[in-house]
Amino acid sequence: MEVCSSTDISLREFGCEQNLLSRPDGSASFVQGDTSVLVGMYGPAEVKVSKEIYDRATLEVLIQPKVGLPSVRERSQEQCVRETCEASLLSFLHPRSSLTLILQVVHDDGSLLSCLLNAACMALMDAGLPMSCLFCGVTCAINSDGQIITDPTAAQEKECRAILTFAIDSTDHKVMMSSTQGSFSVHELQQCIAVCQNASEKIFEFYRDSVQRRYSKTL
Amino acid sequence: MKDTPLSNCERDFLLKAIEEKKRLDGRQTYDYRNIKITFGTDYGCCFVDLGKTRVMAQVSCELVAPKETRPNEGVLFFNIELSPMASPAFEQGRQSELSVKLNRQLERCFRNSKCIDTESLCVVSGEKVWQIRVDVHTLNHDGNLMDAASIAAITALCHFRRPDVSIQGEDITVYTPEERDPIPLSIYHMPISSASPSFNRERICCGSM
């Protein structure tokens, strides 16, 4: 299938706030357009004997939807976030400890999984956990014409034939995790990865900028 | 994870201070912490900050069959989630004593006080009524979750708008917000809870509204 060469690398306006809750060790809120997520992070802390790993920290991710109880969809999102975090955290520095990441969906207007990933990274930074690299999430959608749209809204997601979310690391810009829905060709997949890698640059710049602003007063 | 226990000298200090009508953060015995209420993007979403305690409430609605004993009335459902984010002592999925107590309090506060007109939620008597579901998520536990939850629940209910419905014979049409403006719920009064813990035998009030 012919893919349109014109791609739209425009991300919605994003905003972030760190350290907004007093009880968790690290907390952050990430907003992408209208999609908003709040994250709280506890760790390294005491772990139950049944869950402890002798040489690494045990990472637990919980996603709470806004309405109703967590279902299978939240479980699959939790797995995506957990795999990404485990790949970037230096968990062998905290053996027999637990790291708990709790994400609360505040509003879902499309690109939810990438917003969850971005918020998780900001919370891990706020908690001061050692990581080998930062990561960010980017969602892109392929609509019926074959055009690739980054950071789709809920309305755009309904109309397109495929939604792809990638977690990209900050050092080599490689794909850490991918979650896809719908049908697309191999060529389209490679194009989407390239588009997302480009878009991730903006997000990492934003991370750097917000952390710089936060610590500019103290340093 | 268990909550860090209070040491004996901390407990004695607290009780002694309360006997002398003093509080750790400098408040008077009847003072409330600052309350801040903010609203989210969609109808029925609100955040309440009671000092550092933070709570979020979301109201949603759905058409369901009514209860057999009350075919003319809508259904009100309250659910307060003690999220593990609020405190490391809260566990996901476990029905702790505090969670049961808060749920029961919320139900008594709103359902028994009849603050919402449930008869206006009826669409077709005996077949279809609106079920109003209030989900309260605790985000940060710094004391007095009950008051924060009740303020969040009633504010969210006042903020919420349900879709407009029209009935033509047997057909029920539910209009989207673009077609017809959504309608607010009819609320008679706003019940708010106020916590009053007692220490030893003296009665100390957390605040009054």
TrEMBL record, chain A:
<dbReference type="InterPro" id="IPR015847">
    <property type="entry name" value="ExoRNase_PH_dom2"/>
</dbReference>
<keyword id="KW-0597">Phosphoprotein</keyword>
<dbReference type="InterPro" id="IPR027408">
    <property type="entry name" value="PNPase/RNase_PH_dom_sf"/>
</dbReference>
<dbReference type="InterPro" id="IPR001247">
    <property type="entry name" value="ExoRNase_PH_dom1"/>
</dbReference>
<dbReference type="InterPro" id="IPR050080">
    <property type="entry name" value="RNase_PH"/>
</dbReference>
<dbReference type="GO" id="GO:0005730">
    <property type="term" value="C:nucleolus"/>
</dbReference>
<comment type="similarity">
    <text>Belongs to the RNase PH family.</text>
</comment>
<dbReference type="InterPro" id="IPR036345">
    <property type="entry name" value="ExoRNase_PH_dom2_sf"/>
</dbReference>
<keyword id="KW-0539">Nucleus</keyword>
<dbReference type="GO" id="GO:0000177">
    <property type="term" value="C:cytoplasmic exosome (RNase complex)"/>
</dbReference>
<dbReference type="GO" id="GO:0071028">
    <property type="term" value="P:nuclear mRNA surveillance"/>
</dbReference>
<dbReference type="GO" id="GO:0006364">
    <property type="term" value="P:rRNA processing"/>
</dbReference>
<dbReference type="Pfam" id="PF03725">
    <property type="entry name" value="RNase_PH_C"/>
</dbReference>
<dbReference type="GO" id="GO:0003723">
    <property type="term" value="F:RNA binding"/>
</dbReference>
<dbReference type="Pfam" id="PF01138">
    <property type="entry name" value="RNase_PH"/>
</dbReference>
<dbReference type="GO" id="GO:0034475">
    <property type="term" value="P:U4 snRNA 3'-end processing"/>
</dbReference>
<dbReference type="GO" id="GO:0003677">
    <property type="term" value="F:DNA binding"/>
</dbReference>
<keyword id="KW-0271">Exosome</keyword>
<keyword id="KW-0963">Cytoplasm</keyword>
<comment type="subunit">
    <text>Homodimer. Component of the RNA exosome core complex (Exo-9), composed of EXOSC1, EXOSC2, EXOSC3, EXOSC4, EXOSC5, EXOSC6, EXOSC7, EXOSC8 and EXOSC9; within the complex interacts with EXOSC3, EXOSC8, and EXOSC9. The catalytically inactive RNA exosome core complex (Exo-9) associates with the catalytic subunit EXOSC10/RRP6. Exo-9 may associate with DIS3 to form the nucleolar exosome complex, or DIS3L to form the cytoplasmic exosome complex.</text>
</comment>
<keyword id="KW-0698">rRNA processing</keyword>
<keyword id="KW-0238">DNA-binding</keyword>
UniProtKB/TrEMBL annotation, chain B:
<dbReference type="GO" id="GO:0016075">
    <property type="term" value="P:rRNA catabolic process"/>
</dbReference>
<keyword id="KW-0694">RNA-binding</keyword>
<dbReference type="InterPro" id="IPR050590">
    <property type="entry name" value="Exosome_comp_Rrp42_subfam"/>
</dbReference>
<dbReference type="GO" id="GO:0034476">
    <property type="term" value="P:U5 snRNA 3'-end processing"/>
</dbReference>
<feature type="domain" description="Exoribonuclease phosphorolytic">
    <location>
        <begin position="32"/>
        <end position="163"/>
    </location>
</feature>
<keyword id="KW-0698">rRNA processing</keyword>
<dbReference type="InterPro" id="IPR033100">
    <property type="entry name" value="Rrp45"/>
</dbReference>
<dbReference type="InterPro" id="IPR027408">
    <property type="entry name" value="PNPase/RNase_PH_dom_sf"/>
</dbReference>
<dbReference type="InterPro" id="IPR020568">
    <property type="entry name" value="Ribosomal_Su5_D2-typ_SF"/>
</dbReference>
<dbReference type="GO" id="GO:0071038">
    <property type="term" value="P:TRAMP-dependent tRNA surveillance pathway"/>
</dbReference>
<dbReference type="GO" id="GO:0071035">
    <property type="term" value="P:nuclear polyadenylation-dependent rRNA catabolic process"/>
</dbReference>
<dbReference type="GO" id="GO:0000176">
    <property type="term" value="C:nuclear exosome (RNase complex)"/>
</dbReference>
<keyword id="KW-0963">Cytoplasm</keyword>
<dbReference type="GO" id="GO:0034475">
    <property type="term" value="P:U4 snRNA 3'-end processing"/>
</dbReference>
<dbReference type="GO" id="GO:0000177">
    <property type="term" value="C:cytoplasmic exosome (RNase complex)"/>
</dbReference>
<dbReference type="GO" id="GO:0034473">
    <property type="term" value="P:U1 snRNA 3'-end processing"/>
</dbReference>
<dbReference type="Pfam" id="PF01138">
    <property type="entry name" value="RNase_PH"/>
</dbReference>
<dbReference type="GO" id="GO:0005730">
    <property type="term" value="C:nucleolus"/>
</dbReference>
<comment type="similarity">
    <text>Belongs to the RNase PH family.</text>
</comment>
<keyword id="KW-0271">Exosome</keyword>
<dbReference type="GO" id="GO:0000467">
    <property type="term" value="P:exonucleolytic trimming to generate mature 3'-end of 5.8S rRNA from tricistronic rRNA transcript (SSU-rRNA, 5.8S rRNA, LSU-rRNA)"/>
</dbReference>
<keyword id="KW-0539">Nucleus</keyword>
